[in-house]
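Let's sit down with a protein and look at its sequence and fold side by side. Please make up or recall a protein chain and show it to me in full. Label the sequence line and the structure token line clearly, so we can match residues to local backbone shapes. Go ahead whenever you are ready, and we will take it from there.
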Amino acid sequence: LEKAAPRLRPWQREILRIVRLVAQYFYPQRQTKVMNEGCATYCHYRIMNALSEKGLIGEAAYLEFLQSHTNVVRQPNYNERGYNGHNPYAIGFAMMQDIARIVEQPTEEDRAWFPEIAGTGDAMATLRDVWANYRDESFIAQFLSPKLMRDMRLFHVVDDPDESELYVEAIHDERGYRKMRRSFARQYDVAWLDPDIEVVDVDLEGDRRLIVHHRALNRITLQKDDAKRVLQHLADLWGYDAVLREIDPANEAVLAEHHASARPIFF
């Protein structure tokens, strides 16, 4: 739109450019939220404990820190009123602590699951490597341990719209741990979470209708009202009609189709 929309004025293109650059800047941060917050809380926790052990801060300051830290890393249960998904601070902090435990005091289970890092002895070196080379999805897929899954009481439930009941697909056994870890990591994969929407065609010499496809992963279509509003905004920016088709990647069938026409008052 910024470069190809035929009816945008220069100042409108500049606004689109600014929005695009800001979005591109923040996009990577969405992929490291658990790691960023985990690193921050873990390092803060270590620093404050070291200061307390050396007598450089008093008990009052230390207790104040513990109260704040505990509130930050608290993970509400799924059936609590305040539950809103997994707390990235809680997940990140717990995983950082668990990695340090595996490096310094591994069990036989840890040695079987993490032979590269178990018992190596230098927790901070391992964590620095993790912070430098992983994002949330790959971090969880690589380092979420069976012990932590047990401690956090994780389980995997499948909510199939074609079935009348929920199905517990993974529990605390060898196969279940691996399935839970894959499923949990996928919740932090931006490519899996964000709709795959792209412009596929436009007839610049004809009616100039913009055709957009959403490849609906697992046949999950967009929320109708949201799709309608966004498509209307897209048509307004484009200056002509726009069509959004939701496609099943498995067989290329059209699951839904949305239409919008540019509002002349926009220009």
